[in-house]
Design a protein that fits this description.
Number of domains: 3
Structural class: alpha/beta
Mean pLDDT: 94
Radius of gyration: 26 Å
CATH architecture of the largest domain: Alpha-Beta Barrel
Largest sheet: 6 strands, parallel
Number of helices: 22
Strand content: 15-25%
Bound molecules: beta-D-glucopyranose
Oligomer: single chain
Strand order of the largest sheet: 4-5-6-7-8-11
Low-confidence stretches: 1-19, 58-66
Helix content: 25-40%
Number of strands: 29
CATH class of the largest domain: Alpha Beta
Distance between the termini: 37 Å
C-alpha cells in the first residue's frame, strides 16, 4: 500500500516503497524483444552512433565538438544531445532524428537541471542544509515537471560527491561532507526526478544521472579535476554511500568523474564501473562520461584517442559525452581486436533501454509539450515552494543580542555589492533559469517590509580589488557591473547611510561563480574589498547583520568574533530575495543546519566532524605536549557540522536508551524530549550520532545515523525516538565485508555534532 506523505502543491509524493520497482519479467521480456528486433536492423555505425552525445549548447566549453550536428543526426551518428533549452527547438531536432535518419531512433535530451529548471531552488549544498529530504524531493519533482514539459527527459543530477574540502568550488553542487545525510538527499532527488513507482517514466518525470562517479570531491588540495587517491575502506565507508543510495533508489544513469581512482581515470576504471557499480550494487542503467572525459584521458597519459576510447568501453562506459572518441575510433578498434562487437552491443542496448523506459519509442515528443510549458513552468505554486525551501536552507550562524529578526519599521541601510544584483541570486549551474526573473535582495526586502519601510542602499565596494578575479567569479557573461569610483568613495557613501540607519544589512560574500565548476579557491574568506567595507561598518558601532552569500563553507573567524549577526544564505534560487527577507524580518524562523564543517582557517582543511581519533588525540590524558594539534589554531571548527541557530531556543531533556544491551537481531531506542523554550514557533533538527568504541579497524569518533526535523510551537515538547538496529552499526572492515562488531557503542543526540548528550550500550556477541 502506498502512503501519500504530502500533497503540498497538489503534487502527490508517494512513499511506502524503499526503492523504485524493478521491471517485471514480462515487461523486461517485451522490452528485450523490441530492442533485439531493432538492433538486428542496425548497422555497426548506427550502434556506435547511439553511444555518441554531442553538446548542443555553449554552456561549457570543450574540444572535439562536431560542427554539423544536424547532418550527424541524419546519419544516425548521435544518441542524444544536451543543454538545448526550448521546447520548439528540441521538437525540431527530434523531428530530424525521427523523420530523417534511416531508423528513426529518437534522441534522448539531457540538461544540467541541477537545482530546478526555471523555478530555481537553492544550490544543492543549501538544499542539503534544510535537512529535509521531503522538501528536497519536492524541489526535484518540480524540476522534473518543468523540464519534462520543455523537452528534457534526462538530468545530470544528483551530484552526490562527498567533499571535505571547501577549497573545491564544486562543494556548492554536492551534498556536503556526510555519507548518511548525503545518502538521504541523493535518494530524495532520485525519487523527485523519477518517481518511486517503477521503471516506466511518466511524461512529467525525468531520468536522473548520478554524478560524478566516483570520489570527485576528494581532489588533492581541493583543486578541481586534480588527482584522487584513497584507501578502499574510506571509499566504501565514507565516499561511496550516497552513490549507492542513489543507485538503490533506481537512478537510471550514472556519470563518470574526471578524476583518477587508484591510478586509473574513472572513465576507464573497470573495477569502478563494472565490478562495484554493476556487480556489487546491481545497477542496470547506462553510464555516460563527463564532458570530454574520454578525450581527457590522453592528457591523463593512458593512451591516444583510440586506446582510451576502447578502454572506456571495456570498463563499462556506454555513452561518450562530447569527445567523439567512440564515434571516431570504435570501428577501427573492433577491426584491430581491441573491443568486441559484444562490447558495442552491450552499450548500445543500455542506451536503447533507457529510451524505451522513457517511452520515447512510443512517442518521441512526449516530453515536448508547449501547452504544459505555459501551464507548468515557473508557476506561482512552484515559486512559492522555491521561496519556502530557500528560507529553510539558510543557516543562522550568530545572533548576538537578538538583532534578528528585524522590525519592519526599522530604518535599514542595505550595503554591499551583492545586494542589488538579480543575476547573482540563483547560484551556479542555473542552466535553465531566466535571469531577468529573480528579484534583488534590496527589492525583496522592500517587498516584504512594505511601502512604509525606509530602506537605503549603497554598494559600498566591488566584489574584490582584482577586476579579473571579479570577472571570473560572476555568472557566465553576466558580470556585476564594476563601479569605477574609488574604494574610499564607495565606503564613505556606505558609512553615511549607516550613520542614518538603525541597523546595517551587509550583503557580502561570494558572487555565484566563485563556487561551482573550476572555481577552487586557496583563500575562502569574504573577498578583500568586501572585508574592508565590513570592518568599517562594524567599527561604526551600528548593529550589523551580515547576509552571507556563499557556495561553500567559508572562513569567518574575524566575522564570528566581531559581527553581531550572521545569516548564511548560500545561493537560494529564483526566490532567494523574498526568502532572505522572510527570514530577516522573522516571517520565517530559520531552521537550516550546516551540512559541512566551517573551518577556522584554510590550514585546518580537510576538517570534518566524523574523523578518526588518532593515537594522540588532543584530549588525551597520556600526552602532555606531543599531541595531534596545531601550534597556532585549535583543532575544533568555527562552526560544526549540524550547527545552526533559530530565533527561538530548544532545550533537550535527558537522553535515554530503551536498553543498554542489544542483540544482532534486536533493536533499541534512543529517545529525548525536545522543548521549544522561546516565544515563537520553530523547527529543530534533532541529530543522532553513534561511535563504535572498539573495532577491528579504527572507527570515526562520531557518525551521523539519524535525524529528524521537528516543528515545535512555543512551550511545546515532543519526544523524538531513533531506532538503532544492527544494520545501523555496520561498516566495511579491512576485508571490505559489511559487518557489525560486538562491543560497546556511544550514542550521541543533540542539535549539532558538537552539542550532544551521551549514552552507551553493548552489542552482544
Ligand atoms: C560537468 C558535469 C556536467 C557536464 C555537462 C561538466 O563540465 O562536470 O557536472 O553535467 O559538464 O554539462
Amino acid at each position: 500500500m502506498k502512503k501519500i506523505v504530502t500533497t503540498l502543491l497538489g503534487l502527490a509524493l508517494t512513499a511506502g516503497t524503499l526503492c523504485a520497482q524493478p521491471m517485471s519479467a514480462p515487461d523486461k521480456a517485451k522490452m528485450d524483444r523490441f530492442i533485439d528486433k531493432l538492433m538486428k536492423r542496425m548497422t555497426l555505425e548506427e550502434k556506435i552512433g547511439q553511444l555518441n552525445l554531442p553538446s548542443a549548447g555553449d554552456i561549457t566549453t570543450g574540444q572535439a565538438q562536431s560542427s554539423d550536428i544536424g547532418g550527424a543526426i541524419q546519419r544516425g551518428e548521435v544518441g542524444g544531445l544536451f543543454n538545448i533549452k526550448g521546447v520548439e527547438k528540441i521538437r525540431d531536432v527530434q523531428r530530424v532524428a525521427v523523420e530523417e535518419s534511416r531508423l528513426g531512433i529518437p534522441l534522448i535530451f539531457g540538461m544540467d537541471v541541477i537545482h530546478g529548471y526555471e523555478t530555481t531552488f537553492p544550490i544543492p549544498l543549501a538544499l542539503t542544509a534544510t535537512w529535509n529530504p521531503e522538501a528536497v524531493e519536492r524541489a526535484a519533482r518540480i524540476a522534473a515537471i518543468e523540464a519534462s514539459a520543455s523537452g528534457i527527459c534526462w538530468t545530470y543530477s544528483p551530484m552526490t560527491d562527498i567533499s571535505r574540502d571547501p577549497r573545491w568550488g564544486r562543494v556548492a553542487e554536492g551534498v556536503g561532507e556526510d555519507p548518511f545525510l548525503g545518502s538521504a538527499m541523493a535518494r530524495a532527488m532520485v525519487y523527485g526526478y523519477q518517481g518511486r513507482d517503477g521503471w516506466r517514466y511518466a511524461n512529467d518525470e525525468i531520468m536522473a544521472c548520478v554524478k560524478h562517479f566516483a570520489l570527485y570531491g576528494a581532489s588533492e588540495a581541493g583543486r578541481d579535476y586534480n588527482t584522487v587517491d584513497m584507501s578502499r575502506q574510506r571509499m566504501y565507508n565514507e565516499y561511496f554511500p550516497p552513490y549507492k543510495a542513489a543507485a538503490e533508489a533506481g537512478a537510471g544513469s550514472f556519470m563518470a568523474s574526471f578524476n583518477e581512482v587508484e591510478g586509473i581515470p574513472a572513465t576507464a576504471n573497470r573495477w569502478l564501473m563494472t565490478d562495484v557499480l554493476r556487480d556489487e550494487w546491481g545497477f542496470e542503467g547506462f553510464v555516460v562520461t563527463d564532458y570530454t572525459g574520454i578525450y581527457e584521458m590522453i592528457a591523463h597519459g593512458i593512451g591516444d584517442l583510440q586506446e582510451v576510447s576502447a578502454r572506456a568501453l571495456q570498463a563499462g562506459i556506454d555513452m561518450d559525452m562530447v569527445s567523439e572518441g567512440f564515434l571516431r575510433t570504435l570501428k577501427a578498434s573492433l577491426e584491430a581486436g581491441k573491443v568486441t562487437e559484444a562490447d558495442i552491443d552491450r552499450a548500445c542496448r543500455r542506451i536503447l533501454e533507457a529510451k524505451y523506459k522513457l517511452g520515447l519509442f512510443d512517442d518521441p515528443y512526449r516530453y515536448c509539450n508547449p501547452e504544459r510549458v505555459a501551464r507548468d513552468v515557473y508557476t506561482p505554486e512552484h515559486c512559492a515552494e522555491a521561496r519556502r525551501t530557500a528560507a529553510e536552507s539558510f543557516v543562522l550562524l550568530k545572533n548576538e543580542g537578538s538583532i534578528l529578526p528585524l522590525k519592519k519599521n526599522a530604518k535599514i541601510a542595505v550595503v554591499g555589492p551583492l545586494a542589488s544584483s538579480r543575476e547573482n541570486m540563483p547560484g551556479t549551474w542555473s542552466v535553465a533559469t531566466d535571469f531577468t526573473k529573480p528579484h534583488t535582495l534590496l527589492e525583496g526586502l522592500r517587498m516584504v517590509a512594505g511601502d512604509d519601510a525606509e530602506i537605503l542602499y549603497a554598494k559600498g565596494s566591488n566584489i574584490c580589488y582584482d577586476p579579473e578575479l571579479e570577472a571570473n567569479s560572476t555568472v557566465f557573461g553576466r558580470t556585476i557591473a564594476r563601479d569605477n569610483r574609488s574604494d574610499r568613495e564607495m565606503i564613505d557613501e556606505a558609512l553615511r547611510l549607516a550613520a542614518e540607519a538603525d541597523v546595517v544589512v551587509a550583503a557580502l560574500g561570494e558572487p555565484s561563480e566563485m563556487s561551482g565548476e573550476c572555481s577552487s579557491r586557496s583563500e575562502i574568506g569574504i573577498p578583500d574589498a568586501q572585508q574592508a567595507l565590513l570592518r568599517e561598518l562594524v567599527a561604526t558601532g551600528k548593529p550589523v547583520v551580515l547576509v552571507l552569500f556563499a557556495g561553500r563553507p567559508m572562513t569567518l573567524s574575524w566575522e564570528a568574533e566581531h559581527v553581531p549577526a550572521i545569516l548564511n544564505v548560500w545561493f537560494g534560487g529564483t526566490q532567494a530575495a523574498e526568502a532572505i527577507a522572510d527570514v530577516l524580518y522573522g516571517d520565517v524562523n530559520p531552521s537550516g543546519k550546516l551540512p559541512s564543517t566551517f573551518p577556522r582557517n584554510v590550514g585546518q582543511i580537510p576538517l570534518f566532524y566524523n574523523h578518526k581519533n588518532t593515537g594522540r588525540p588532543l584530549l588525551s590524558d597520556h600526552f602532555e605536549k606531543f599531541r595531534s594539534n596545531y601550534l597556532d589554531v585549535p583543532n575544533t571548527p568555527l562552526y560544526a557540522f549540524g550547527y545552526g541557530l533559530s530565533y527561538t531556543t530548544f532545550e533537550y531533556g535527558p537522553l535515554t536508551l530503551s536498553s543498554d544491551r542489544m542483540t544482532a537481531d534486536g533493536s533499541i531506542e534512543a529517545s529525548v524530549e525536545v522543548t521549544n523554550t522561546g516565544d515563537r514557533a520553530g523547527a529543530e533538527v534533532v541529530q543522532l550520532y553513534i561511535r563504535d568504541l572498539v573495532g577491528s579497524t579504527t572507527r570515526p569518533v562520531q557518525e551521523l545515523k539519524g535525524f529528524e526535523k521537528v516543528q515545535l510551537e512555543p512551550g511545546e515538547t515532543k519526544r523524538i525516538s531513533f531506532r538503532i538496529d544492527n544494520e545501523l552499526l555496520k561498516f566495511y572492515n579491512h576485508d571490505l565485508e559489511f559487518v557489525s562488531e560486538p562491543g560497546e557503542f556511544d550514542v550521541m543526540v543533540g542539535g549539532s555534532s558538537d552539542r550532544v548528550q551521551h549514552a552507551t550500550f553493548t552489542l552482544a556477541e
